[in-house]
Amino acid sequence: MTNRKTLLLIALPMWIGVAADAQQRPPVRQIGTVSSKSSESFPTLVGVRALPDGRVLVNDVGARRVLLYDASLSTFTIVADSTSDTGNAYGGRVGNLIAYRGDSSVFIDPSSVSMLVIDGNGKVARVMAIPRAEDASAIGSPTGNATIDANGRLIYRAVPGFAFGGGGRVQIQGTPGAARTGPPPMPDIPDSAFIVSVNLATRKLDTLGYIRTPKIKMEVQQVDGGGFRMQSMLNPLPVVDDWAVLNDGTIALVRGRDYHVDYVAPDGASRSAAKIPFDWQRMTDEDKVAFIDSVKAARARLGANAPVPVAGQAPGQAAAPGAGAPQVMVFSQTVTGGGGGPPPSGGNQVRLGDGPGGVEISYVPANELPDYKPPFFAGSMRADTEGNLWIRTIPTAPIPGGPVYDVINKEGAIVERVQIPENRTIAGFGKGGVVYMVHRDGTKQTLEKASIR
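Predicted structure:
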């Protein structure tokens, strides 16, 4: 009896603390009214750059264009595209659009390892070289959060290094060369990445912090003809970190394991904020199986229209085609010494599309999902013009309507919970309490301008 009382006394404060945290979460309010919508629709819109006078640059990665819209989103001019119409080539791969000094912007083109400086009139004023060519794909990723701060530092997530272990030469099916002499080597992919800065004037590289990234699990399966099939296995609910740069150059690192923010100031000083209240939801074994089944079913319903997932992002998210995102893309490839064959069927695999162009998506076993549903997916965070973080949270209970964002102030405390309409995501912010949202309608997307309140 004494032991039971002791355990109760120990557990009671913990339960009270959890309950208090849940009670401290602000009520959900709705985002302000949408004031205008873009006259053009896009196949894939990733990122906007709001100018001080209300105009906005749009990175239309699906059509490989950069557009400059007026403040009402009714008319636009083409800044760069994939044709010869403007004389400013977008590049062979998708690029990244970020703010620069004043009303100027920078378009980062990883294919040419260059950065185009765009002035306030939408004209390319000059071209700079990417300071570290080996990091061009990470800096030029439209989903990579690269930023140039007021001190002239280019801040980005460095490319994670990984190496293939084992021995033997590998031949990809259908390419000439030496045949496989042993089992294909498996890559050792790290589960963390560094956030670094490069001074554009001195080219000095500094490491600012690190974030937890999805651990990619690889599997090898033998197929008919003596070959092997190497496939990455996706965890649709990983515990990850995310990051953003605030308006004063401070780096905010949001930790997914216990949901708090670590800050790194421009002078290198670091601090940790208190844990953010969150309604943690425990996942039973049955919950984990049901979650993976629901993800597979949702993707199967979309068929060939389903986006190729990126590790750590929400199941409905995907990197832009060819984006070169620093997250690890799910892939499936047959490695063989002369044979080949279709992949084995069954298990946790879902095929998106028919024929050789279809993508095989494989999921980790359900028991590898976390015991508690994490607060957010990778790529779920944006910083507004006031230095607040907007974090799109994973719902732990049914909430009608669209996604809900936790708004975190510079002290790392939650001040609001804001819901946006269905089928929308926040693409960026403008001055004067303006928010830009991407509205997905089937295979088309439009840009919407709304007020935060």
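Summary: The CA atoms of residues 115 and 128 lie 5 Å apart.
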